[in-house]
Amino acid sequence: MAPRDVSATCLSCHTRSPHTMWQGSAHDARNISCVTCHSVHEPESPAAQLKASTEVELCAICHRVQAMKVKRISHMPVQEGKMQCSSCHNPHGSTNVKQLKVGNWINESCVSCHTEKRGPFLFEHAAGRESCVTCHDPHGSSNDRMLVAKTPMLCQRCHIGTRHPSTIYDNLAVQNRSSRIAGRGCVNCHSQVHGSNHPSGQALIR
Amino acid sequence: MRMPNPVLLAAALLLPTAAAAAQAGAQSPQSQSPAPAPAPAPKIGEIDFGVRVNAISGDPARYQRLRDLRDGPTLDRLRYERDTDTWNVQAAMDHVGYRDQRYSSTFTRYGKVKASVEWNQIPLFYSIDTRTPFREESAGVFRLDDTLQAAIQNSLATTAAFVPASRLFELRSRRDIADLRLAYSVNPLLDLKFSFTSTARSGAQPWGTSFGQTNAVELPVPIDHRTNDLNVMAEWSTERAMARLAYDGSWFNNDVETLIWDNPLRLTDQAATPSQGRMALWPSSTAHTVSAAGSLALPARSRAFGYVSIGSWLQDQKLLPHTINTAIAPIPIARETAEAEARIVSMNYRVTSRPSSLVWLNGQFRLYDYDNRTPRFPVSQYARVDSGVATSLTGGSEPFGYTRHFVDVDASFTPLPFMALRAGYGREHDDRTFRFLEETTEHALRASVDSTGLSWGSVRLQYDHAIRTGEGLDEQALSDIGEQVSLRQFDISDRNRDRVTAIVQVAPFDTFGFNGSVGIGQETRPDAAFGLQDNDLRTFTVGFDATPRDTVLVGATYGFENYGTLQRSRQANPGVQFDDPTRDWSTDMSEDVHTLTASLELPQLSSRTAVRLAYDLVRSNAQYIYLLPPNSTLTPPQQLPSVRNHMQRATADVRYAINRRLALGIGYAYDQYDVENFAMSPGTLNSPVFSGFVNLMYQARPYDAHTGVARLIYGW
Known about the structure:
The structure holds 2 protein chains of 2 kinds. By secondary structure, chain A is mainly α.
């Protein structure tokens, strides 16, 4: 049977919540069928009849880079068994981008757990409000807080204004323990980078 | 009730842990159960208990991080399941008594009811030996020794006086999650679903505060908040049609919304130098969403799907005064509460058709509208870090919002069985408020070849090309806040993107499989004179799995990733410097990551013994190189040291079946982390107090850890 014929057979019964958006989903578009990941007769996993022993192993067959990032020093608790790929993604399709399970945009998925960053706030960081993945790699990173680059370099990709944002913070600054590069870098002061609810919080320092 | 099969029992005892844990919706933490060998979980009860011993040199907090691996007795796993023809009950416990414990239970009456309850804890261990001169007087209020503050204010001492006064403390937080779910089938076509999740976070985390650019203070800010999430849903479905209505509510409540802390430099207020600072922490908020979805089968093997949701995010916490500094005359605030609200409308319409077995078509439209309805909060004068009054460059808040429109069409042609050729086009148009670029449009083309479902393997190849351009650039707004007008913020700037990915899986024999993948990507930003210029990635992976004999399973995967970016800036103050190109500089960042995973399983080393060996390696090396043009007038920078994150982990797990119910397990894990992080190294943060920077000494430090586990596994 062709892959989409296989899926049509399964979908004759599996018509509800998790599977309602399979047709037209990213995996369906790549000619993947239900039996690419599931085996009804010889499952390797104890749950969900997967062809690999764990969900991460299964997803890693195609999503190698994401699976490798999960092993980085800064990561979600996937290796620790507290999350799985399906904690965030619905591989059967969803209304969100990237097959994210919750919400309808990337940020809605992230703030479903990181609720304190939901807001809305009086003053907001536009890039953060637009998308969490502008600054964070949710699969893992070598940088603290799963940032895509170290601070202050990450911040200096957008903030090069006069005085301190445009300054080179080199090894001399490190040796001098400049609060703009040592420790948390820019966030040593701009700690409300996700948004401030303080009337004087426009620079996200209060 | 089914009777336990003796053979199955023995196999289950030899190869326990991960599978059964996964049955309860989780996997066992690696160090709790080093390298467990997976196996189908038998429908029996099982208990896994023993003792764990660690020998750790270096940073025990970084080693444990999201786990609790303290020495002591363990009840790592308890499983119970009873299954009849009409109902099923499961119960599970993991890591009982530790900070990462979990308890869960499910009840299923087939075709009628499915109910589950879970209690789950996730720790986050920052540090065992952070230091601070502050004491927490009450939740969120941090004080220093008045005598020292007075001495420093009167130039009788320096901030170094706080060093001996700094106390040692552990820094950690924890997430406690209670989850209740119920699904009830009214009849074969109609389901009612209910879920309630309550998540509490407690503890503390490192947090930056400031009195100005030369007076940063890091604190262990308290975390004490709870989120309650409720979902109710009704879903009706047949093979031809589906309709769904749902409500989602979320209530976030923070018990510590204000942070107050002393100024290390002063005991009494002065307009330009306060005695204390005050910050607004996360405000309590709520979110409500109602949604409706439906799908309908159409002729020619087609289906239409539609989804609409309307949500409201609300936050109306009382606003703090501009400053806590009593030497600054009160600054009026425009309103007493935040009155923050966002209305979110989302739509998703999709039609998929397969008019013949050769052709598959898909069209989709998505709308996501984040309408920020927060009234603008006008600010002419504000208190700058409690250290004086400044004039706002923007005149107040900028309630940022956006609307995204997505259109996607895909066509797939399957000329050969199990091979699909696909071409697709996507367009994303975004409208924004209060950003320098008000509109962006991205056109994306993609083509892929997918060979799937073949007995010998699969081949997948995809190429993506996307061009994003913007309209409505407001250079004056950049100028008004002191930015270079030719800066382009990388998340909305014009961008050309190309990416190729290929994945090959080959299994020529039942006993051997090979896999490999390649990814190449490049992003350029053609009109960005300043900001992020280029962004490249190169990745490849190779791996194999082999079972040369029924009793031997071996596999390994190696991956290499390279990421590179180039960003440009100009070190300048207002005036002539601002337009001086000899003050330009760039940062060339590159990161190489090598990842290796290997395992050897001997599930039947003898009739009673199973062995699994595993090894993981991650070596990341990153460099941030500063570049100056030949005619630069800047002082040549001292280059930053490389950033190194090297981890390896080796595990051995041996199980011996004493009899058909009882097995003895011995596990050993060796973990090593080698780190060089110039910003957080022990060499950099070697004191809690520097001139102008009070910090927690929260460092990135290496560790070596040996973990031994002895356990008994009893099944019934």
